[in-house]
Amino acid sequence: MTEIAVKDEESYKKDFLPDARKIIMDHGGKYLGGGFNKTVALSGAPPANRIVLLQFENMDTVKAWWDGGGGDIEKKVGSKYATFRTLAIEGVTP
Description:
The protein is of the alpha+beta class. The chain is built from 2 helices and 4 strands; from the N terminus they run βαββαβ.
């Protein structure tokens, strides 16, 4: 899950999202939910203007995505347009 406070939405969409999405897909990631201004706080502080929920096969896969470019693109490119808080959460068997 990533909470993103986007400062420059147009540049973020143009210069960051295409490469970020490619790295996610290349590592088997799936978008489960998210978008701009689509999150509602039920309690606590209001969320950032973009929240994204991704699914990966397992924790090793999410670490491979992060080490394989996900972390770098967030720090190098994304930080120009937004601030990020990215978390990995271990899944449970339904």
